[in-house]
């Protein structure tokens, strides 16, 4: 337990250090010497009148080494299909999207950066219902300048005394026009449904380029959009030319900064927190009512339910401030991460303890069961640290995907590890039912453990696999149902576990040996190694079981 406390302390210190980097829905990303050819900046679900603001503050590329007409650089904004699956396949993502034509009817916008002409070419593909607001680059019309000079020349012929002076001034003006061609850069509003090509101004300061744009989405353009940055030269095998850029992305819907699928989450988490809190109160009432058969693990289960409720409350508050401010409030975010870490640790510890039969059947864990806890607790802390890093890291950063893979792998290992104690207990009960005289009671326990095993497997499969598959098949505005299904399945799992292992005299799981014959049978089973670590217990006058001696 001391090791667990130290690990939790280190984890808490780490996520407090990582928290200030969190920007939520106002994203700021700075990459230096990057070599990836495609960078996923963010995915966001927009409703009608939602806005996307992109500010490329600095872009540094090797100008002399790359043919940007053949290998373009820029952004792409693409909408997913109606079922929430992105419009591009894995084969398409291996290539540079800026050089490919659209393979479907979904809206697609390319922002091609032209270093040579200091401009950005905007190409809107397929049906659009978007408004682009940006600084347009318009070159001065040389023909109009020529007509103006000709009219001035005709007026000068009327006055011979001023003819020579007018000619000198005329000779200077064309030279200045040639040497300093003027351009008129005006911030304008462009309807991409009627104008599919727009040229924007690209500002240059030394070797640094910058520009910005805003897109307002119409009613027909609602959907889940993916914003990416592309450096097409590195899409060819063997090319890893470094480049650097800093970008700020702000996404907003009409009523806040949350994506369309996240808007219902603050209320969902708050409602589910109330349900878990009521369930925890009912559980505590049941413990007080049957105090004669309550074990320590029953109170641990109550602590888990209350911690889960608190975690959901802080999660709801965290999302509320993200929606109103565009970023979380540091204090509330810390409280959420603390309760989230405690909830995750308590969940796996409680499930593993129930699986080993600790406090119900025995008070001492075997060596291999202790090893399970030595593996699960640090891994669960690592999983929570990975989750916190993912929450506080921009999606476009390279470490984001590394920690995402770590989280997925560690979570699966923890889910598999807690099944081992249940399997061991089932095996022990199978052997015990064939060696002692209490076969009927052991068979009841065996049946209960098998149900518990099936419950854990179903819970893991549903929350880790089935719910995620359902998320990808739902429309973008209904993807919050994934979180709803996960929370409801967690509630059902908690209720069923509490019912199966409730403190009651008629619960077969709590019916322990009470006579001398059982002592002899226990010794036989223990000597065979089937029930290693099980302690002898004796019923007291008030119905509680207490440990008398170890059968090790």
UniProtKB/TrEMBL annotation:
Start and end residues of each stretch annotated as Disordered: 142-184
Ranges where the GOST seven transmembrane domain occurs: 264-508
Membrane topology summary: Multi-pass membrane protein
Annotated InterPro entries: GOST_TM (IPR053937), GPR107/GPR108-like (IPR009637)
Skewed-composition ranges (Basic and acidic residues): 142-175
Keyword field contains Translocase: no
Superkingdom of this protein's organism: Eukaryota
Keyword annotations: Membrane, Signal, Transmembrane, Transmembrane helix
Listed transmembrane segments: 268-287, 299-322, 334-360, 372-390, 402-424, 452-472, 484-501
Subcellular location: Membrane
Main location: membrane
Signal peptide annotation: 1-24
Coiled coil: none
Gene Ontology cellular component terms for the protein in this record: Golgi apparatus; membrane
Protein name: G protein-coupled receptor 108
């Amino acid at each position: 337990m001391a090791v667990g406390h130290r690990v939790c302390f280190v984890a808490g210190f780490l996520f407090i250090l990582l928290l200030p980097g969190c920007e939520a829905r106002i994203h700021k990303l700075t990459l230096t010497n990057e070599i990836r050819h495609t960078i996923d900046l963010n995915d966001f679900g927009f409703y009608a009148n939602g806005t996307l603001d992109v500010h490329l503050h600095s872009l540094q590329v090797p100008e002399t080494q790359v043919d940007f007409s053949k290998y373009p650089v820029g952004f792409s904004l693409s909408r997913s299909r109606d079922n929430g699956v992105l419009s591009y396949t894995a084969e398409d993502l291996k290539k540079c999207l800026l050089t490919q034509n659209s393979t479907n009817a979904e809206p697609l916008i390319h922002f091609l950066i032209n270093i040579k002409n200091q401009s950005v070419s905007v190409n809107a593909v397929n049906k659009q219902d978007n408004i682009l607001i940006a600084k347009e680059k318009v070159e001065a019309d040389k023909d109009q300048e020529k007509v103006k000079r000709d009219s001035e020349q005709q007026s000068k012929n009327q006055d011979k005394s001023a003819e020579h002076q007018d000619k000198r001034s005329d000779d200077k003006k064309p030279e200045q026009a040639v040497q300093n061609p003027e351009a008129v850069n005006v911030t304008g509003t462009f309807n991409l449904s009627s104008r599919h090509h727009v040229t924007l101004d690209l500002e240059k300061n030394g070797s640094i380029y910058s520009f910005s744009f805003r897109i307002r989405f119409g009613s027909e353009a609602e959907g889940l959009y993916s914003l990416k940055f592309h450096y097409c030269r590195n899409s060819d095998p063997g090319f890893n030319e470094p480049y650097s850029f800093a970008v700020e992305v702000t996404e907003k819907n009409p009523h806040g900064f949350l994506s369309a699928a996240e808007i219902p989450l603050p209320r969902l988490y708050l409602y589910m927190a109330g349900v878990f809190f009521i369930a925890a109160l009912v559980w505590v009432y049941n413990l007080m009512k049957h105090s004669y058969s309550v074990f320590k693990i029953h109170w641990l289960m109550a602590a888990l339910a209350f911690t889960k409720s608190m975690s959901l409350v802080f999660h709801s508050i965290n999302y509320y401030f993200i929606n109103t401010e565009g970023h979380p409030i540091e204090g509330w975010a810390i409280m959420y991460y603390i309760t989230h870490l405690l909830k995750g640790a308590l969940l796996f510890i409680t499930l593993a303890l129930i699986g080993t039969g600790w406090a119900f059947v025995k008070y001492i864990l075997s060596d291999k069961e202790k090893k399970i806890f030595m593996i699960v607790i640090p891994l669960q802390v690592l999983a929570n640290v990975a989750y916190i890093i993912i929450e506080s890291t921009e999606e476009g950063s390279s470490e984001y995907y590394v920690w995402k893979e770590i989280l997925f792998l560690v979570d699966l290992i923890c889910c598999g590890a807690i099944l081992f104690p249940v399997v061991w207990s089932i095996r022990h009960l199978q052997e015990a039912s064939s060696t002692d005289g209490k076969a009927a009671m052991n068979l009841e326990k065996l049946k209960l453990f098998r149900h518990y095993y099936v419950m854990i497997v179903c819970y893991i499969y549903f929350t880790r696999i089935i719910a995620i598959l359902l998320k990808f098949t739902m429309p973008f505005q209904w993807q919050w149902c994934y979180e709803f299904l996960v929370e409801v399945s967690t509630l059902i799992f908690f209720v069923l576990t509490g019912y199966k292992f409730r403190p009651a005299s008629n619960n077969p799981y709590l019916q322990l040996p009470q006579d001398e014959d059982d002592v002899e049978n226990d010794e036989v089973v223990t000597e065979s190694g089937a029930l290693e670590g099980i302690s002898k217990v004796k019923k007291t006058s008030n119905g509680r079981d207490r440990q008398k001696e170890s059968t090790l």
